[in-house]
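Many introductory courses stop at the sequence. We go one step further.
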Amino acid sequence: MAMREIVAWVMVALFGVVGAICLVSILDAGFAAPPQEAAIVAAGIAVVGVVVLEVALAIFFPRQSGAPPDERERLIVARAGHWAGLAFLFGALPALGHYVANGNGNIMFNVILLSLFVSGVAEYGSQVILFRR
């Protein structure tokens, strides 16, 4: 398995688990509730997890972590990024529209936060699928 595919697997797991924790926290309080502390902590855990992963990759794969992606990997990353952008767009635009119509920033915040986790899973999940093709 290539190093970038390993990264994609780990990131899918990270964004999936942390996003699920965030979703449960938001659902327990309701979408109209103010941002939950657990959701904010989950976002912080995701950021720290990404940094720890990058450091671990630099330690365990020193040559490969600094190497530029080849042609196939560049296309895979570009296509997966496009799909992730669309996934985020499908969550963020309705949240923004709801805010314009109803003025509830709590719902907008919660939906956009969840959209970030969904787009992360979509990006790295599609990378896994495209690397396996």
